[in-house]
Amino acid sequence: MMEFVAANLAPIMFGSVVFFLLSGFPVAFALSACGLLFGFIGMELGLLPSTLFQALPLRVFGIMQNDILLAIPFFTLMGLILERSGMAEDLLDTAGQVFGPVRGGLALAVIFVGALLAATTGVVAASVISMGLISLPIMLRYGYSRPIACGVITASGTLAQAIPPSLVLIVMADQLGRSVGDIYKGAFIPAFMLVGLYALFIIGLAIFRPQTVPALPPEAIRYREPNGASGLRSLLVFLSLVVGISTLFGANYDTILSAIEGREVVTTLEEVVVIALTFGTALALLLAGLNRLLRLGLLSQIAERFTFVLIPPLALIFLVLGTIFLGIATPTEGGAMGAVGAMIMAVSRKRLDLVKLREALESTTKLSVFVLFILIGATVFSFTFTAIDGKEWVEHLFDKLPGGQLGFLIFVNAVIFFLGFFLDFFEIAFILIPLLAPVADKLGIDLIWFGVMIALNLQTSFLTPPFGFALFYLRSVAPVGAFIDRVTGKRVDGVRTTQIYRGSVAFVCIQILMLALIIAFPEIVTGNLDEKVQVDLDSIQIQAPPSDGGWGAPAGGDNGGW
After folding, report:
1. Considering the entire predicted model, what is its pTM?
2. Is the pLDDT at 267 greater than 70, yes or no?
3. Backbone angles phi, psi at 161, to 5 degrees
4. Distances from the Cα of 472 to the Cαs of 123, 249, 455, 460, 478, in angstroms?
């Protein structure tokens, strides 16, 4: 018996932690308890030295000194302040008025606002609950299909997992040992491709099944001009003007910068895009502000409201992500700027007081401590698992998979997709990624590509029945029974749990399609990364210092003065 345990200690340990996790035992304590228990068993069997755990305190202090993890509380605080300042309500109301007159417009507005909230709040619960409270009653009021309405709200809320600055991507970068900035760059295009696929799905429904996504009736449009016009033409002209001037500015940015500095300056495409977008947001705010201040009346009501509601969050996104992409700020510094910017936005709207600030700080502290304790537990588990050659056992498991890289990627994504039915993304990231990353690296898989792929896969864990958290968040705010609508006075049926589950299926399929595209075309992720510098070791030359001692030393090697 003891010989069997000694020979199979790694698989027994892995099976034990999976059992504890599925049983509902707290994750951090399950991981650390398994690590300590099997460490002592290994010592008793003579497989591990008795001094094994002496290095463990240094590992724990190393986690606390990790600068990358500091970005988590900053980005969380930024998101919670924006969520409590009512930004989501303003965005949903305005976007609904802009897109509502067309079939599927409300659903497109939810997707658009979900992407914007994802890039600013980064909190799935806040996004899903806000959109469920605001958009779902309107969709039910005007005859939207219940599964479609529920599906688009839950799927758009989970975009916070994929769009930078996502907490999942920060954790993934830390576990893979890669730059957060690089993994943000890699995830940027796939995340917005996913948003585009969501929008295409809604557009397809509007064309082929228009009764499931009806347009808002004229009486539901609140922002109108005195002559009864919608004002959308003014908005379109204004946006076209701003985009045109920003594009022209970006195209001539090198010339302008060269004239200012008096020398030829060549900038990267990333810098030009960030500068042009930032210039565009500042220009839109300036023009709209002058129009209001001078009472010029050049913009319609909807155009003015759209600008003042939409542009400030966009400016914050460009400030935070732009400085990270350009290498001006680290993710931690970018998160700190974002938190300060969110406070300034909330104070300027007179929507931040000490009570809301305290609530945001308390929630941020709870989430940060939650992540830290799970990471400490995962470190204890990984410490013992590595000591008993568990990682070699994992590598040997994947040696027998057919198909090389492709077989490995398909199998890993299938396993993580299945575990997403039962486990939270933090648990999967902290337990499995450290075991899978070395195998992926040995197979020649780019770890940024691998990390973005797993992050998008983990996003589905919020949507997959029966334990998808986004489904639970929506269930908590969706009406269960029939109710009398306060606007129309008509009786409206509630939303059944099975309708929420049915609505998620189509969007899970879209996410699987996106995963397949990333596996088939890695350049979707890697094409946005900086080229790796190839160093030819054979061409490296080491030059000795000059014979006179070098570095200003007196001839003859008299270094007594040093």
Report:
1. 0.80
2. yes
3. -80, -25
4. 15, 46, 21, 14, 10
